[in-house]
Each structure stands twice: as structure tokens, then as C-alpha cells.
Design a protein that fits this description.
alpha+beta; four-stranded antiparallel beta sheet
Length: 420
């Protein structure tokens, strides 16, 4: 599961978090959890898969052959770390079912690979300009979502949006000095909230607010019905600072986050010359150093290398240092998904249960099988990822359709019975 807390509305930011319990409303269930008292509505991805596995393993009423089960406390981005100590050919199974996908009409026999990229940039703070004041600039309540599944949607990354908007203000209106920047909470979740503290001339404040609100309006229109709850707030910071970045350093940092990470309309294994998204998932400040975690995704190792080299090339010229790359997800490509036996079995059983068809998808899905296949290569071309219908994964809006769970569960039991 990916933790993506829901920020409080203006005036409630510091209020006591509200624990949310599991609810069923209409045809959708919000499977929720409460960790350390923080508010969120996560758990559908992949609580449903875990629940199904636990039910099958602890009951004697289901027919199936010998099973090997893999449960992980990580999800996708750290799965390779989790598997690093597992010996080669540890799994002896002939087929692999990954119960972690968000659409019953689509089976996945391929997945993009992904790397984590870390870098940082020390801030060379200087005395603030006379007559300026310290302001908090915040964007919040964007939709967010899964950084791979939602890459085809025009969702706004809060960090990228905020840096882009403030950078354009410095080019079109007046200069500002950056004090700090923080946003995001998980590398594989599109950030919904970001905070920037700047030093600016009070007389520029009305124009800054106007500029940012216009930028959000434009971004919302481009989002085609998404990010409708997005909010912009500009107010005096609680503490007035005495040091900030100079104008040149400010523009370098803003430009890096706004323009260096790249994205595309949709990842697809047929688009071999297009490199996938680099999600800026987490930015935080520690001891006047901006620390960044990003995740390039691509179907091909050379695409991941391209993304990393691009980030490092431009970042180094903009003062970013200590670039580190950690391979987290291995590309998993099946050239002929229609010939994967376990996928054929699932499709046949799904049709028997629902009267509908499900087809192998060519876009990314099912990160975890790639790590298992890397250890047990006999599973290559014998793996499929399946799941019920979920919405807005990796965000507090995450939910699952109740009826699709029942269809998926019946299909799963039928498949296990047939392949025993």
C-alpha cells in the first residue's frame, strides 16, 4: 500500500486528524486504514489481493493444487530490495498470478521498469533584500494518483506545478527568493500538496496571488475534469526569515523541478521511442539542503538510463549533487501475451463467471511479477496480473467496486481449481 494522507482544508491544517473506517457506499467500497492517527482512505490497493490470499491459505473449503505465496510489506518501488536476499529459482511454481491490478477488463503480461533517483542541493542562503517579507505559497487538494497508472491522465504534480508557476512569475513580473520547498510523500504517488516559502516584496503580493490562481485555473482546464478541488494559498509565513537564496539560485531550482523531469501521454510497449514519466515524488528540506526522490519509469532499460542521465546532466548544471540511482522494478515484457497459458485460463474463467471478456493489455501493470521472474525465470511467459476495478489508486480517493470484487474472487477460485 502507498500512504497518501489527506491534507486539512484552510484553517484546519493543524486540527486533529480524523481516523476513517471501512465504508461501503452505493457500488463502491472505500477500504481505509488509520496509521499513527493520520487521515487517509487507502487500502484497496492491495488490501483486496492480500485478503484473498489469506482467505485461501487459511481455509480448507477451496480446491487448488500446491501453492507458493509471496506477501511483501513493500509495494512495487521497493520490491527488488525485498527480493534481493531470495536465492535464484527459489519459487518452483509453473504459473504466477499477481493479484494487484485495477481493471477486471484488462490482464497484464508486461510491466514497465522503474528506478529510484536521489539527489540533493545545498542552499547558499544570503541575507534577504530590504523591504521584503516571508510568505508561504501552498498548492493542495490536487487529485494525485498512481505515477504509472495515471501517467496518461493530465494530472498535476503539486511540486512541478508550484515550481513552474512561481518560475513563470519571476520571468513575467518580479523576482522572489526561495527559502524552502517541500512536497509529496511517496515516490510512486503523484504529489497532491506542496509548500514553498519565499521572500518577496509586499507590493508584488496581489500580482503573485493573481498569477498563481490563473495558473491553477489553466492547469485545471488542461486536466480535463481532474484536479477540480485544487487550492492555492499565499499568506505571511509564521516566521520571518533573515536568509534566502539569491535570485539566480532560486530560478535554477525552480527550473529544475518544473522542466527537467519528463512525461508522456501514455506508456505503451509499442511506443519504443518514447521515454516514460519521471515523477518527482518527494522533496523535503533538511539543514538547508533540498533532498529529492524521483522515479523514472520505462519499458526498456535504455530508456531508464536515458532518464537518469538526463536528470543528472541538467541537475549538475543547476547545482544538484549526489545523484544516486537504485533499480527498483525490472521491465517485464511478454512479446505474445495472447499465448500466455495462465492468461488464457483466466480469460476463459472470467468469461464463464461474468459473460464478459478480458484481454491482455499492452500498457504497464503488475510491477511485482518482474522481481519474481528475475529470481525464477521459468515463470517468464507464464505470469499474469489481475484484479478488481479500483479507482484513484495511491491517493486518499482510492476505492474499489464491490461487484467487481465478487466477480474477480469467483474467477480466481475457478482458475485455481483448473490449474491445480
Amino acid at each position: 500500500m502507498v500512504w497518501a494522507p489527506e491534507p486539512g482544508f484552510e484553517g484546519e491544517e493543524n486540527g486533529h486528524p480524523i481516523p476513517v473506517q471501512t465504508t461501503i457506499s452505493g457500488k463502491q467500497a472505500v477500504i481505509s486504514m488509520d496509521a499513527d492517527g493520520k487521515r487517509s482512505s487507502l487500502g484497496a490497493d492491495d488490501g483486496v489481493g492480500v485478503a484473498a490470499i489469506m482467505e485461501i491459505m487459511t481455509s480448507n473449503k477451496y480446491q487448488h493444487g500446491p501453492l507458493e505465496v509471496f506477501l511483501s510489506v513493500t509495494e512495487e518501488v521497493d520490491i527488488v530490495y525485498c527480493m534481493s536476499s531470495v536465492p535464484k529459482r527459489y519459487f518452483k511454481a509453473k504459473h504466477l498470478l499477481n493479484l494487484d491490478i485495477e481493471s477486471p477488463e484488462r490482464m497484464y503480461t508486461s510491466s514497465n521498469g522503474a528506478h529510484k533517483v536521489y539527489c540533493d542541493r545545498p542552499l547558499k542562503l544570503k541575507p534577504v533584500h530590504k523591504g521584503t517579507k516571508t510568505y508561504l505559497v501552498q498548492v493542495s487538494h490536487l487529485d494525485g494518483g498512481h505515477s504509472a497508472l495515471a501517467v496518461h491522465n493530465p494530472l498535476n504534480n503539486a511540486i512541478t506545478f508550484l515550481c513552474d508557476s512561481v518560475y513563470s512569475f519571476t520571468q513575467e513580473h518580479s523576482k522572489v527568493s526561495l527559502v524552502s520547498l517541500e512536497g509529496g510523500n511517496a515516490v510512486n504517488a503523484i504529489p497532491r500538496k506542496a509548500d514553498m516559502i519565499i521572500q518577496a516584496d509586499p507590493k508584488d503580493l496581489p500580482e503573485l496571488k493573481k498569477h498563481l490562481r490563473h495558473a491553477l485555473d489553466v492547469a485545471t482546464k488542461m486536466a480535463q475534469g481532474l484536479d477540480k478541488e485544487g487550492r492555492i494559498m499565499v499568506k505571511l509565513a509564521d516566521t520571518q526569515v533573515k536568509q534566502a537564496c539569491d535570485y539566480e539560485e532560486t530560478e535554477q531550482i525552480l527550473w529544475f523541478y518544473a522542466y527537467v523531469p519528463t512525461g508522456i501521454d501514455r506508456m505503451d510497449i509499442t511506443m519504443k521511442h518514447i521515454f516514460a514519466a519521471s515523477n518527482v515524488g518527494l522533496v523535503k528540506m533538511e539543514n538547508n539542503v533540498i533532498k529529492t526522490t524521483m522515479m523514472p519509469r520505462c519499458f526498456f532499460d535504455d530508456g531508464l538510463a536515458y532518464q537518469y542521465n538526463r536528470l543528472r546532466y541538467f541537475g549538475a548544471r543547476l547545482g544538484f549533487k549526489n545523484f544516486q540511482e537504485h533499480k527498483t522494478c525490472i521491465p517485464w515484457l511478454t512479446e505474445h501475451p495472447e499465448k500466455v497459458e495462465i492468461a488464457q485460463t483466466w480469460s476463459r474463467c472470467y468469461t464463464k463467471v461474468t459473460g464478459k471478456y478480458t484481454f491482455p493489455a499492452k500498457d504497464p501493470g503488475g510491477i511485482e511479477p518482474a522481481a519474481i521472474i528475475d529470481i525464477s525465470p521459468q515463470l517468464f511467459n507464464h505470469a499474469v496480473a489481475v484484479g478488481p476495478r479500483m479507482y484513484d489508486c495511491h491517493s486518499p480517493l482510492e476505492r474499489v467496486e464491490v461487484k467487481s470484487i465478487l466477480d474477480w474472487w469467483k474467477t480466481l477460485l475457478l482458475v485455481l481449481k483448473e490449474i491445480k
